[in-house]
Amino acid sequence: MDPASLDGLVPAHLQPRTRRILLKDFAVPVDIGFHDFEVGKPQRVFVTIEVWLDEASFAAEDVVEAAWDYDFLRNEVLRLVAGRRYNLQETLLREIYALVAARAGVTGLRISTSKPDVYPDCAAVGVELSSF
Fold first, then answer.
1. How far apart are CA 30 and CA 44, in angstroms?
2. In a domain, 10, yes or no
3. 4, pLDDT greater than 70
4. What CATH code is carried by the domain that includes residue 90?
């Protein structure tokens, strides 16, 4: 089916009101924690980034140039943690949040980090920041 033949089929009340991209449970090795047994021993940290975009920043055509750069999210998170240590997830989270919030087209943001290997009886412990 020709994509142009689908134009006009979505009723006005079902038109998209938000646009979101998602990087979910990105496993990143981070030197994090304030306990003696944690210092200098990278741990897995899962990073989830949800970015709501304005209409102009969300790809309307099936071309690479129109897409929001997912690689930016991964690469910048990796760059932030490279060669750096964190005592707290909150500090890491604030740095990731500020980095993404500064990008053009962002209208809303939710970012969480979690450490899955802390307690044997919990899936993970973590923190979250959101613009709403």
1. 6
2. no
3. no
4. 3.30.1130.10
Residue 11 resides in a domain: no
- DSSP string covering 37-85, please? TTTTS-EEEEEEEEEEE-GGGS--SSSGGGS--HHHHHHHHHHHHTT-E
The H or E element spanning position 94 is: helix 89-101
Distances (CA, A) of 66 to 6, 32, 63, 108: 20, 36, 6, 19
Calpha distance 104→49 (Å, rounded): 16
In tens, the pLDDT along 12-54 reads 899 888 999 999 999 999 998 888 887 878 899 999 999 999 9
| Domain presence at residue 85 | yes
Output the average pLDDT for the chain. Answer: 90
Single-letter code of the amino acid located at 108: G
Per-residue pLDDT for 3 more than 60?
no
pLDDT in the model for residue 60 = 83
What are the CA-CA distances from residue 107 to residues 66, 82, 102 (Å)?
A: 17, 28, 10
Residue 3 included in any domain: no
Domain count, the chain: 1
Name the residue range of residue 54's domain.
Answer: 18-130
Token pair of 109 as six digits: 């943001």
